[in-house]
């Protein structure tokens, strides 16, 4: 039962994450709250962080069920994957204004369209932030190989195809043929050299 709840919590979290980021919802909300919409990004960021922490805390309260023995090697793998994933996430933000991304700087993203980034890590994969998160969750599993850790990773991997689909649908609406061409030329999560 606790693991079923964990899956349901992740499903709700990811569904809300996608809905609240959609252009349809943003436009609807802006029509409702008017000028206050410029603070929506900050509210969205706060809800995302609080929701994520709540799920991780809940996962930590579940009775521990190990899937494999903890060794120096698994611990090393955990640190390695998590560190590499963190580096990728940090580099993913290099070309963005962090204050705007989090929402500390009020802005209307329905009017002030964000620059279409195709440099840095974005010239190799379209979603480096997602790739970094996968590595962090994988590292967490190797560091603490529990069923709850595995469920965190599995839920993320299950969500990604849907999350990417809806995000790219929005990006295509925003950037048109430029994004369609970019999508055709650049892989989603795994660089071509690694695939080869």
TrEMBL record:
Keyword Transmembrane attributed: yes
One Gene Ontology term from the biological process aspect of the record: methylation
Localization (cell): Endomembrane system
Keywords recorded for this protein, A-Z: Membrane, Methyltransferase, Transferase, Transmembrane, Transmembrane helix
Residue stretches spanning the membrane: 6-25, 37-61, 73-90, 124-143, 149-166
Mode of membrane association: Multi-pass membrane protein
InterPro entries noted in UniProt: Phopholipid_MeTrfase
GO cellular component assignments: endomembrane system
Gene Ontology MF annotations: protein C-terminal S-isoprenylcysteine carboxyl O-methyltransferase activity
PANTHER family tied to this protein: PROTEIN-S ISOPRENYLCYSTEINE O-METHYLTRANSFERASE, PROTEIN-S-ISOPRENYLCYSTEINE O-METHYLTRANSFERASE
Protein name: Protein-S-isoprenylcysteine O-methyltransferase Ste14
Lineage: Bacteria, Pseudomonadati, Bacteroidota, Cytophagia, Cytophagales
């Amino acid at each position: 039962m606790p693991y079923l709840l964990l899956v349901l919590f992740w499903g709700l979290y990811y569904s809300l994450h996608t809905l609240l980021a959609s252009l349809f919802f943003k436009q609807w909300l802006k029509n409702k709250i008017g000028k206050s919409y410029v603070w929506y990004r900050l509210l969205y960021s706060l809800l995302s962080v609080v929701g994520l922490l709540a799920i991780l805390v809940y996962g930590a309260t579940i009775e521990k069920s190990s899937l494999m023995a903890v060794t120096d090697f698994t611990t090393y793998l955990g640190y390695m994957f998590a560190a590499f994933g963190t580096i990728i996430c940090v580099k993913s933000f290099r070309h963005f204004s962090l204050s705007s991304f989090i929402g500390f700087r009020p802005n209307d993203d329905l009017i002030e369209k964000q620059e279409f980034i195709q440099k840095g890590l974005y010239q190799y994969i379209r979603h480096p932030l997602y790739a970094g998160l996968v590595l962090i969750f994988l590292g967490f599993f190797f560091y603490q190989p529990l069923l709850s850790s595995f469920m965190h990773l599995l839920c993320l991997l299950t969500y990604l195809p849907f999350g990417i689909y809806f995000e790219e649908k929005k990006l295509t609406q925003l950037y048109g043929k430029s994004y369609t061409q970019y999508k055709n030329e650049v892989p989603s999560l795994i660089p071509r050299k690694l695939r080869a």
